[in-house]
Specification:
This protein is α/β, with parallel strands linked by helices. The protein folds into 2 domains: about 180 residues, Rossmann fold (3-Layer(aba) Sandwich), CATH 3.40.50.280; about 220 residues, Alpha-Beta Barrel (TIM Barrel). About 40% of the residues lie in helices and about 15% in strands. Strands 9-12-13-14-15-16 form a 6-stranded parallel sheet. A 5-stranded parallel sheet has the order 3-1-6-7-8, sandwiched between helices. It has a 3-stranded antiparallel sheet with strand order 2-5-4. It is globular. It starts with a strand and ends with a helix. About 40% of the residues are buried.
Protein backbone atom coordinates (compact mmCIF):
# COMPACT_ATOMS: atom_id res chain seq x y z
CA UNK A 1 0.00 0.00 0.00
CA UNK A 2 1.29 3.46 -0.96
CA UNK A 3 2.36 5.58 2.03
CA UNK A 4 3.22 9.25 2.45
CA UNK A 5 6.48 10.09 4.19
CA UNK A 6 7.60 13.51 5.39
CA UNK A 7 11.41 13.90 5.39
CA UNK A 8 13.01 16.54 7.62
CA UNK A 9 16.49 18.06 7.57
CA UNK A 10 16.71 19.53 11.10
CA UNK A 11 18.00 22.78 12.52
CA UNK A 12 21.63 23.29 13.47
CA UNK A 13 22.11 24.53 17.04
CA UNK A 14 25.70 25.66 17.53
CA UNK A 15 27.74 28.73 18.46
CA UNK A 16 28.48 29.25 14.75
CA UNK A 17 27.46 27.75 11.40
CA UNK A 18 27.85 28.65 7.73
CA UNK A 19 26.39 27.11 4.61
CA UNK A 20 29.30 25.63 2.69
CA UNK A 21 27.02 23.81 0.24
CA UNK A 22 25.24 21.72 2.87
CA UNK A 23 22.64 19.27 1.58
CA UNK A 24 21.03 16.25 3.35
CA UNK A 25 22.36 13.81 0.76
CA UNK A 26 21.49 10.69 2.74
CA UNK A 27 17.92 11.89 3.18
CA UNK A 28 17.65 12.59 -0.56
CA UNK A 29 18.72 9.01 -1.25
CA UNK A 30 16.15 7.77 1.30
CA UNK A 31 13.55 9.73 -0.67
CA UNK A 32 14.62 7.97 -3.87
CA UNK A 33 14.51 4.56 -2.19
CA UNK A 34 11.00 5.16 -0.87
CA UNK A 35 9.74 6.42 -4.23
CA UNK A 36 11.36 3.44 -5.95
CA UNK A 37 9.23 1.27 -3.64
CA UNK A 38 6.08 3.10 -4.74
CA UNK A 39 5.68 5.53 -1.84
CA UNK A 40 5.29 9.33 -1.84
CA UNK A 41 7.79 11.66 -0.18
CA UNK A 42 7.96 15.35 0.71
CA UNK A 43 10.99 17.22 2.06
CA UNK A 44 11.29 20.08 4.54
CA UNK A 45 14.92 21.19 4.58
CA UNK A 46 15.32 23.63 7.47
CA UNK A 47 18.74 24.61 6.09
CA UNK A 48 17.62 25.52 2.56
CA UNK A 49 18.62 29.18 2.21
CA UNK A 50 16.96 29.36 -1.23
CA UNK A 51 13.54 28.11 -0.12
CA UNK A 52 10.83 30.11 -1.91
CA UNK A 53 8.62 30.71 1.15
CA UNK A 54 11.62 31.63 3.29
CA UNK A 55 12.80 34.20 0.75
CA UNK A 56 9.33 35.67 0.19
CA UNK A 57 8.72 36.18 3.91
CA UNK A 58 12.20 37.06 5.19
CA UNK A 59 14.00 38.34 2.09
CA UNK A 60 16.44 36.69 -0.32
CA UNK A 61 19.69 35.20 0.98
CA UNK A 62 22.94 37.10 0.77
CA UNK A 63 25.13 35.29 -1.71
CA UNK A 64 28.81 34.89 -0.94
CA UNK A 65 31.54 32.64 -2.36
CA UNK A 66 29.95 30.55 -5.17
CA UNK A 67 26.45 30.55 -3.62
CA UNK A 68 27.61 29.84 -0.07
CA UNK A 69 26.33 32.12 2.66
CA UNK A 70 24.92 32.66 6.14
CA UNK A 71 21.86 30.90 7.50
CA UNK A 72 18.99 32.70 9.17
CA UNK A 73 19.67 32.46 12.89
CA UNK A 74 18.07 33.07 16.28
CA UNK A 75 19.76 33.21 19.68
CA UNK A 76 18.53 30.52 22.07
CA UNK A 77 19.14 29.68 25.71
CA UNK A 78 22.45 27.96 26.44
CA UNK A 79 21.99 24.39 27.71
CA UNK A 80 23.04 23.47 31.22
CA UNK A 81 26.34 21.89 30.13
CA UNK A 82 27.52 25.25 28.76
CA UNK A 83 26.41 27.07 31.90
CA UNK A 84 28.11 24.56 34.20
CA UNK A 85 31.40 25.01 32.33
CA UNK A 86 31.11 28.80 32.05
CA UNK A 87 31.42 28.69 28.27
CA UNK A 88 31.51 32.35 27.10
CA UNK A 89 29.68 31.65 23.83
CA UNK A 90 26.01 31.87 22.86
CA UNK A 91 24.13 29.04 21.21
CA UNK A 92 22.12 29.94 18.11
CA UNK A 93 19.55 28.09 16.04
CA UNK A 94 20.43 28.12 12.34
CA UNK A 95 17.86 27.56 9.62
CA UNK A 96 14.18 28.31 9.12
CA UNK A 97 12.50 30.60 11.65
CA UNK A 98 10.28 28.46 13.88
CA UNK A 99 7.00 29.96 12.63
CA UNK A 100 7.85 29.01 9.03
CA UNK A 101 8.82 25.48 10.02
CA UNK A 102 5.57 25.05 11.93
CA UNK A 103 3.55 26.38 8.99
CA UNK A 104 5.22 23.91 6.63
CA UNK A 105 4.55 21.03 9.04
CA UNK A 106 0.83 21.86 9.19
CA UNK A 107 0.63 21.26 5.44
CA UNK A 108 1.51 17.59 5.99
CA UNK A 109 -0.99 16.31 8.53
CA UNK A 110 -1.76 13.46 6.12
CA UNK A 111 1.78 12.04 6.34
CA UNK A 112 1.97 8.44 7.51
CA UNK A 113 5.34 8.91 9.24
CA UNK A 114 8.16 11.45 9.63
CA UNK A 115 11.84 10.68 8.97
CA UNK A 116 14.44 13.03 10.49
CA UNK A 117 18.13 12.88 9.61
CA UNK A 118 21.07 13.99 11.76
CA UNK A 119 24.66 15.03 11.18
CA UNK A 120 27.26 16.16 13.73
CA UNK A 121 26.86 14.56 17.16
CA UNK A 122 27.38 17.95 18.83
CA UNK A 123 24.34 19.34 16.98
CA UNK A 124 22.02 17.04 18.91
CA UNK A 125 20.09 19.89 20.57
CA UNK A 126 19.02 21.03 17.11
CA UNK A 127 17.76 17.53 16.34
CA UNK A 128 15.77 17.19 19.58
CA UNK A 129 14.30 20.70 19.18
CA UNK A 130 13.26 19.85 15.62
CA UNK A 131 11.58 16.66 16.83
CA UNK A 132 9.87 18.56 19.66
CA UNK A 133 8.26 20.94 17.18
CA UNK A 134 7.25 18.09 14.87
CA UNK A 135 5.62 16.36 17.85
CA UNK A 136 3.68 19.50 18.74
CA UNK A 137 2.38 20.03 15.22
CA UNK A 138 1.89 16.40 14.10
CA UNK A 139 0.89 14.80 17.37
CA UNK A 140 -0.15 11.37 16.11
CA UNK A 141 2.74 10.75 13.68
CA UNK A 142 5.58 8.34 14.31
CA UNK A 143 8.98 10.07 14.16
CA UNK A 144 12.04 8.10 13.04
CA UNK A 145 15.57 9.44 13.55
CA UNK A 146 18.51 8.28 11.43
CA UNK A 147 21.81 9.74 10.25
CA UNK A 148 25.31 10.18 11.67
CA UNK A 149 24.36 11.13 15.25
CA UNK A 150 21.85 8.29 15.43
CA UNK A 151 24.56 5.88 14.23
CA UNK A 152 27.49 7.03 16.37
CA UNK A 153 25.47 7.66 19.55
CA UNK A 154 22.31 5.51 19.30
CA UNK A 155 21.82 5.19 23.06
CA UNK A 156 22.13 8.95 23.55
CA UNK A 157 19.69 9.51 20.70
CA UNK A 158 17.17 7.05 22.16
CA UNK A 159 17.35 8.81 25.52
CA UNK A 160 17.34 12.47 24.47
CA UNK A 161 16.15 12.96 20.87
CA UNK A 162 12.44 12.46 21.48
CA UNK A 163 12.07 10.21 18.43
CA UNK A 164 9.76 7.21 18.56
CA UNK A 165 12.40 5.04 16.90
CA UNK A 166 16.14 5.53 16.39
CA UNK A 167 17.45 3.76 13.30
CA UNK A 168 21.27 3.71 13.13
CA UNK A 169 23.31 2.62 10.17
CA UNK A 170 24.13 3.69 6.63
CA UNK A 171 22.90 2.75 3.17
CA UNK A 172 19.49 1.08 3.09
CA UNK A 173 19.84 -0.50 6.57
CA UNK A 174 18.25 2.37 8.54
CA UNK A 175 15.34 2.57 6.10
CA UNK A 176 14.85 -1.21 6.26
CA UNK A 177 14.72 -1.14 10.06
CA UNK A 178 12.45 1.92 10.09
CA UNK A 179 9.94 0.28 7.75
CA UNK A 180 10.00 -2.88 9.86
CA UNK A 181 9.24 -0.76 12.92
CA UNK A 182 6.34 0.89 11.08
CA UNK A 183 5.14 -2.55 9.90
CA UNK A 184 5.33 -1.50 6.26
CA UNK A 185 6.30 -3.92 3.49
CA UNK A 186 10.06 -3.76 3.09
CA UNK A 187 11.57 -3.98 -0.38
CA UNK A 188 14.77 -1.99 0.01
CA UNK A 189 17.36 -2.58 -2.69
CA UNK A 190 20.94 -3.23 -1.47
CA UNK A 191 22.20 -1.88 -4.82
CA UNK A 192 20.56 1.54 -4.18
CA UNK A 193 23.82 3.51 -4.58
CA UNK A 194 24.44 2.15 -8.07
CA UNK A 195 20.83 2.24 -9.28
CA UNK A 196 19.28 5.39 -7.78
CA UNK A 197 19.96 9.13 -7.71
CA UNK A 198 19.29 11.59 -4.86
CA UNK A 199 15.87 13.29 -5.13
CA UNK A 200 16.80 16.88 -5.88
CA UNK A 201 13.34 17.42 -7.37
CA UNK A 202 12.17 18.01 -3.78
CA UNK A 203 13.64 21.53 -3.94
CA UNK A 204 12.06 24.52 -5.69
CA UNK A 205 15.50 25.62 -6.87
CA UNK A 206 18.80 23.80 -7.24
CA UNK A 207 21.64 26.27 -7.58
CA UNK A 208 23.76 23.84 -5.59
CA UNK A 209 23.88 20.06 -6.02
CA UNK A 210 25.99 17.89 -3.73
CA UNK A 211 26.97 14.43 -4.97
CA UNK A 212 29.25 11.55 -4.07
CA UNK A 213 30.85 9.05 -6.40
CA UNK A 214 31.79 6.74 -3.52
CA UNK A 215 30.93 5.73 0.02
CA UNK A 216 33.37 4.88 2.77
CA UNK A 217 37.16 5.16 2.85
CA UNK A 218 39.97 2.56 2.93
CA UNK A 219 42.10 4.79 5.18
CA UNK A 220 41.86 4.40 8.96
CA UNK A 221 42.60 7.86 10.34
CA UNK A 222 42.18 7.71 14.11
CA UNK A 223 40.22 10.98 14.33
CA UNK A 224 37.74 10.13 11.53
CA UNK A 225 34.41 8.29 11.79
CA UNK A 226 33.95 7.55 8.07
CA UNK A 227 35.21 3.97 8.27
CA UNK A 228 33.01 3.40 11.32
CA UNK A 229 29.94 4.52 9.39
CA UNK A 230 30.69 2.65 6.16
CA UNK A 231 32.09 -0.85 6.52
CA UNK A 232 33.56 -0.95 3.01
CA UNK A 233 34.74 1.39 0.26
CA UNK A 234 32.36 1.48 -2.71
CA UNK A 235 32.61 3.49 -5.94
CA UNK A 236 30.00 4.24 -8.61
CA UNK A 237 30.51 3.84 -12.34
CA UNK A 238 31.85 7.10 -13.83
CA UNK A 239 29.22 7.17 -16.59
CA UNK A 240 26.38 7.08 -14.05
CA UNK A 241 27.93 9.92 -12.06
CA UNK A 242 28.38 12.08 -15.17
CA UNK A 243 24.90 11.24 -16.48
CA UNK A 244 23.46 12.59 -13.23
CA UNK A 245 25.61 15.73 -13.40
CA UNK A 246 24.58 16.40 -17.00
CA UNK A 247 20.89 15.78 -16.31
CA UNK A 248 20.99 17.99 -13.22
CA UNK A 249 22.59 20.94 -15.00
CA UNK A 250 20.15 20.69 -17.92
CA UNK A 251 17.09 20.33 -15.69
CA UNK A 252 17.83 22.83 -12.94
CA UNK A 253 20.44 25.17 -14.42
CA UNK A 254 22.64 24.17 -11.48
CA UNK A 255 25.54 26.55 -10.84
CA UNK A 256 27.63 24.58 -8.34
CA UNK A 257 28.43 20.84 -8.42
CA UNK A 258 30.00 19.80 -5.12
CA UNK A 259 31.71 16.44 -4.48
CA UNK A 260 31.57 15.41 -0.82
CA UNK A 261 33.25 11.99 -1.08
CA UNK A 262 35.51 11.00 1.80
CA UNK A 263 37.94 9.24 -0.55
CA UNK A 264 37.23 10.76 -3.96
CA UNK A 265 40.69 10.52 -5.53
CA UNK A 266 41.45 6.86 -4.86
CA UNK A 267 41.93 4.82 -8.04
CA UNK A 268 41.07 6.04 -11.54
CA UNK A 269 37.33 6.64 -11.07
CA UNK A 270 37.60 10.40 -10.51
CA UNK A 271 39.90 10.83 -13.49
CA UNK A 272 37.41 8.94 -15.64
CA UNK A 273 34.59 11.15 -14.36
CA UNK A 274 36.49 14.30 -15.32
CA UNK A 275 37.42 12.93 -18.74
CA UNK A 276 33.74 12.27 -19.45
CA UNK A 277 32.77 15.77 -18.26
CA UNK A 278 35.35 17.26 -20.62
CA UNK A 279 34.37 14.97 -23.51
CA UNK A 280 30.69 15.93 -23.20
CA UNK A 281 31.59 19.62 -22.84
CA UNK A 282 29.62 19.91 -19.59
CA UNK A 283 29.91 23.44 -18.23
CA UNK A 284 29.55 24.24 -14.53
CA UNK A 285 31.60 25.17 -11.49
CA UNK A 286 32.92 22.23 -9.50
CA UNK A 287 34.08 22.14 -5.88
CA UNK A 288 36.02 19.81 -3.55
CA UNK A 289 35.47 21.14 0.00
CA UNK A 290 36.01 17.93 1.94
CA UNK A 291 39.79 17.76 2.44
CA UNK A 292 40.81 15.44 -0.41
CA UNK A 293 43.83 13.13 -0.27
CA UNK A 294 46.64 15.24 -1.71
CA UNK A 295 48.86 12.15 -2.13
CA UNK A 296 46.80 11.16 -5.21
CA UNK A 297 47.09 14.48 -7.05
CA UNK A 298 49.57 13.63 -9.78
CA UNK A 299 50.21 15.75 -12.87
CA UNK A 300 47.33 14.23 -14.86
CA UNK A 301 44.88 14.59 -11.98
CA UNK A 302 45.74 18.26 -11.48
CA UNK A 303 45.46 19.08 -15.19
CA UNK A 304 42.09 17.32 -15.46
CA UNK A 305 40.78 19.21 -12.43
CA UNK A 306 41.79 22.51 -13.99
CA UNK A 307 40.25 21.70 -17.37
CA UNK A 308 37.02 20.49 -15.72
CA UNK A 309 36.73 23.90 -13.96
CA UNK A 310 37.20 23.08 -10.30
CA UNK A 311 37.04 26.38 -8.42
CA UNK A 312 37.51 25.03 -4.89
CA UNK A 313 40.13 22.44 -3.94
CA UNK A 314 40.44 21.78 -0.21
CA UNK A 315 43.35 19.52 0.73
CA UNK A 316 43.67 17.45 3.89
CA UNK A 317 47.04 18.44 5.37
CA UNK A 318 46.05 18.29 9.07
CA UNK A 319 49.56 18.43 10.58
CA UNK A 320 53.15 19.10 9.55
CA UNK A 321 54.56 16.93 12.35
CA UNK A 322 55.91 13.65 10.82
CA UNK A 323 55.19 11.68 13.98
CA UNK A 324 51.59 12.92 14.16
CA UNK A 325 51.13 12.30 10.44
CA UNK A 326 52.12 8.69 10.97
CA UNK A 327 50.29 8.06 14.26
CA UNK A 328 46.98 9.53 13.08
CA UNK A 329 46.72 7.29 10.02
CA UNK A 330 49.46 8.02 7.47
CA UNK A 331 47.12 10.02 5.25
CA UNK A 332 49.81 12.45 4.12
CA UNK A 333 53.48 13.32 4.45
CA UNK A 334 55.14 16.64 3.69
CA UNK A 335 56.70 15.19 0.51
CA UNK A 336 53.25 14.07 -0.69
CA UNK A 337 51.82 17.46 0.18
CA UNK A 338 54.53 19.41 -1.64
CA UNK A 339 54.27 17.18 -4.72
CA UNK A 340 50.47 17.44 -4.91
CA UNK A 341 50.37 21.20 -4.39
CA UNK A 342 53.13 21.71 -6.97
CA UNK A 343 51.11 19.74 -9.52
CA UNK A 344 48.05 21.91 -8.86
CA UNK A 345 50.02 25.14 -9.19
CA UNK A 346 51.74 23.95 -12.38
CA UNK A 347 48.31 23.10 -13.81
CA UNK A 348 47.31 26.74 -13.40
CA UNK A 349 45.33 26.81 -10.17
CA UNK A 350 45.24 30.22 -8.51
CA UNK A 351 46.17 30.74 -4.87
CA UNK A 352 42.58 31.50 -3.85
CA UNK A 353 41.35 28.25 -5.43
CA UNK A 354 43.46 25.88 -3.31
CA UNK A 355 43.41 25.64 0.49
CA UNK A 356 44.59 23.14 3.07
CA UNK A 357 42.94 22.13 6.33
CA UNK A 358 45.25 22.32 9.32
CA UNK A 359 44.14 20.84 12.63
CA UNK A 360 44.80 22.66 15.89
CA UNK A 361 44.40 20.96 19.27
CA UNK A 362 45.25 17.41 18.23
CA UNK A 363 46.33 15.29 21.22
CA UNK A 364 50.11 15.57 21.78
CA UNK A 365 50.34 18.42 19.26
CA UNK A 366 52.86 21.22 19.76
CA UNK A 367 52.02 24.84 19.01
CA UNK A 368 54.85 25.19 16.51
CA UNK A 369 53.33 22.38 14.44
CA UNK A 370 50.35 24.59 13.53
CA UNK A 371 52.52 27.61 12.72
CA UNK A 372 54.87 25.48 10.63
CA UNK A 373 51.92 24.07 8.67
CA UNK A 374 50.58 27.58 8.00
CA UNK A 375 54.00 28.73 6.78
CA UNK A 376 54.33 25.64 4.57
CA UNK A 377 51.04 26.48 2.82
CA UNK A 378 52.05 30.10 2.24
CA UNK A 379 55.47 29.06 0.94
CA UNK A 380 53.76 26.77 -1.59
CA UNK A 381 51.34 29.49 -2.68
CA UNK A 382 48.08 28.12 -1.29
CA UNK A 383 45.82 29.27 1.56
CA UNK A 384 45.92 27.69 5.05
CA UNK A 385 42.69 27.07 6.96
CA UNK A 386 43.10 26.34 10.67
CA UNK A 387 40.33 24.16 12.13
CA UNK A 388 40.02 23.12 15.75
CA UNK A 389 40.18 19.39 16.46
CA UNK A 390 36.87 17.71 17.34
CA UNK A 391 36.94 14.39 19.24
CA UNK A 392 34.25 12.27 17.56
CA UNK A 393 32.57 9.60 19.70
CA UNK A 394 33.29 6.10 18.44
CA UNK A 395 36.61 6.90 16.75
CA UNK A 396 39.86 5.28 17.81
CA UNK A 397 41.22 8.60 19.01
CA UNK A 398 38.14 9.26 21.13
CA UNK A 399 38.43 5.83 22.74
CA UNK A 400 42.11 6.44 23.46
CA UNK A 401 41.37 9.81 25.09
CA UNK A 402 38.71 8.19 27.27
CA UNK A 403 41.02 5.30 28.25
CA UNK A 404 43.73 7.79 29.25
CA UNK A 405 41.28 9.77 31.37
CA UNK A 406 41.52 12.87 29.15
CA UNK A 407 37.80 12.76 28.30
CA UNK A 408 34.73 11.30 30.00
CA UNK A 409 32.61 9.19 27.68
CA UNK A 410 29.32 10.44 29.15
CA UNK A 411 30.15 14.11 28.51
CA UNK A 412 27.40 16.03 26.70
CA UNK A 413 28.39 15.76 22.99
CA UNK A 414 27.88 19.50 22.55
CA UNK A 415 31.01 20.10 24.63
CA UNK A 416 33.09 18.25 22.01
CA UNK A 417 32.16 20.95 19.46
CA UNK A 418 35.47 22.33 18.17
CA UNK A 419 34.38 25.90 19.00
CA UNK A 420 33.55 24.95 22.61
CA UNK A 421 36.13 22.29 23.54
CA UNK A 422 39.09 24.71 24.02
CA UNK A 423 37.19 26.61 26.73
CA UNK A 424 37.10 23.67 29.15
CA UNK A 425 39.42 20.87 27.99
CA UNK A 426 42.57 20.75 30.13
CA UNK A 427 44.60 18.53 27.79
CA UNK A 428 44.90 20.76 24.74
CA UNK A 429 45.41 24.34 23.58
CA UNK A 430 43.44 27.14 25.21
CA UNK A 431 40.83 29.10 23.30
CA UNK A 432 43.20 32.08 23.22
CA UNK A 433 46.05 29.97 21.83
CA UNK A 434 43.85 28.69 19.02
CA UNK A 435 42.57 32.18 18.25
CA UNK A 436 46.18 33.37 18.04
CA UNK A 437 46.85 30.57 15.53
CA UNK A 438 43.83 31.57 13.45
CA UNK A 439 44.85 35.23 13.57
CA UNK A 440 48.35 34.29 12.42
CA UNK A 441 46.93 32.21 9.57
CA UNK A 442 44.49 34.94 8.50
CA UNK A 443 47.21 37.58 8.58
CA UNK A 444 49.51 35.41 6.47
CA UNK A 445 46.67 34.86 3.99
CA UNK A 446 45.91 38.60 3.71
CA UNK A 447 49.53 39.61 3.31
CA UNK A 448 50.13 36.96 0.66
CA UNK A 449 47.02 37.81 -1.34
CA UNK A 450 47.66 41.57 -1.12
CA UNK A 451 51.17 41.05 -2.46
CA UNK A 452 49.98 39.15 -5.55
Amino acid sequence: MKKKFLLINPWIEDVSAYDYWLKPLGLLYISSMLENMGHETTLIDNLDRFDKELNEKYGPPKISYYNTGKFKKAKITNPQCMKDNNIPRSLKRYGFPEDLFRAKLREHKNADAVFVTSMMTYWHYGFSDTIRVIREELKDKKIILGGVYATLLPDHAKKYSGADFVSPGTGCLPLKNALNYLEIDNKTDPEWFHKLEPSYDKYNTNRIVVITSSTGCPFRCVYCSCWKLWKEFNQRQPEKVVNFIQKTIEKYDTQEIVFFDDALLIGDIFKDIMKLIIKRNIKSRFHLPNGVHVRFIDKEMAELMKETNFKTVMLGYETSDPDLQKSTGGKVTDNMFIRGVTNLKNAGFKTEEVSAYIMANLPDQREEDVYNAVDKCIDLGILPKVNEFTPIPGTEQFKDLVNKGFLEENTDPLLFDNSILPYWWKHGFSAKTIQDMKDYSNKKRRVYLDAK
